[in-house]
Amino acid sequence: MKLIGRTVEKRRMEALIAAGRHILLEGPVGTGKTTLALDVARSLGRPVFRVDGDGRYTEQKLVGSFDPKLVLERGFVRESFLPGPLFQAMEAGGILLMNELNRMPEMVQNVLLPALDEGLLQIPVLGTVRAQSGFCVIATQNPREFVGTSALSEALLDRLEWVGLGPMSEEEEQLIVSGHLGAQVGDGMVAECVALVRMTRSHTRVKRGASVRASITLARIVASTGIRSIEDSEFAAAAKSVLANRIELQSGKFSSLPYSELLDELLQELLDALKKKS
Q1: Is-contact 24 163, C-beta < 8 A?
Q2: Smallest Cα–Cα separation from 87: which of 70, 66, 56?
Q3: Which of 32, 67, 83, 85 has the least C-beta neighbours within 10 A?
Q4: For the chain, first and last CA: distance in Å?
Q5: By 3-state DSSP, what share of the chain in percent is helix, strand and coil, each rounded to 5?
Q6: Nearest to 138 by CA among 9, 244, 265, 245
Q7: Three-state DSSP class for residue 5
Q8: How far apart are alpha carbons 53 and 50 in whole angstroms?
Q9: CA quadruple 70, 120, 57, 24: dihedral positive or negative?
């Protein structure tokens, strides 16, 4: 996917990497953290080794491990070792992209410290692996207050340079949605989908609004079902399906009603406001 916007952040990342630094990208869901990291890697011409944050991920998966069958056949030699993404990135002088690093267990995070500090990795039996020129870690994380994340250690943060991603403009979001769908949906309906989703981020009843991924999904449904206007009842039904799991409503006086009814009320308000704008 072509990068839309983020030219300032991209230049900053390229400058940091040129200085031999490692990067922590922080921003809400759907702000293009992964797309930006991949675009920077492409610009630099470096291979990317990607890891996605998971509380069950182990340090052995990150570093690599010996294959028991090959060890029996050949012994503890390099050919018996199955390299993990950290080993591969260091060996290739590539970029290790760690999505949602703060979802990783603490032991996985700690394995990174010598690699970030000195470009070194200690492998039992094999010895020391030294990173080739060009090795870099780009980690991403959602804002620290997000549920399901843990704070990165002070030692790890001290070795990562922070780059924050703020919200995109409405025009940029429209370009992103159009880029995903091509000519399947007209610009007018793309604009309506984006506008509706963006409203969820500032509405008083909504604690956490939906990301641009919701706009893309809504536009896909609009395209597949032939919806041509927000006046179509199917548009409201599609929006409800898309937003139900992607927003978090405020608690308080509204919480006594079933979630489905709360969502209906919110959608009616958003659609009325959207119709007035149109």
Answers
A1: yes
A2: 66
A3: 67
A4: 30
A5: 50, 15, 35
A6: 9
A7: coil
A8: 10
A9: negative
Q: Residue 25 CA to chain centroid, in angstroms?
A: 9
Mean pLDDT confidence for 85-108 = 93
Q: How far apart are CA 1 and CA 175, in angstroms?
A: 11
Cβ proximity of 97 and 37 under 8 Å: yes
**Tokens found for residue 203:** 């509405």
Q: Which of 97, 90, 112 is nearest to 36 (CA)?
A: 97
Pick from 51, 44, 131: which is nearest to 87 by CA? 131
Residues 110-131 as b/e (b if ≥16 CB within 10 A, e otherwise) read: ebbeebbeebebebeebeebeb
pLDDT bracket for residue 79 (50, 70, 90): confident
Tokens 């996917």, residue located? 1
Q: Are 172 and 3 in contact (CB under 8 A)?
A: no
Contact (CB, 8 A) for 175 and 191: no
| Torsion angle of the four alpha carbons 112, 114, 115, 121, in this order, in degrees rounded to the nearest 10 | -100
Mean pLDDT to the nearest integer, 152-175: 92
Q: What percent of the chain has pLDDT over 70?
A: 95
Number of other CB atoms surrounding residue 200 within 10 Å: 23
- Alpha-carbon dihedral angle through residues 147, 149, 153, 156, given to the nearest 10 degrees: -130
Q: Could you give the 3-state DSSP secondary structure of residue 220?
A: helix
Please return the burial class of 232, using the count of CB atoms within 10 Å of its CB with bins 0-12, 13-18 and 19+.
middle
In whole angstroms, give the CA distance from residue 122 to residue 245: 43
Q: How many angstroms separate the CA atoms of 176 and 5, rounded? A: 10
**For residue 210, which of 261, 260, 167 has the smallest C-alpha distance?**
167
pLDDT value of position 3: 78
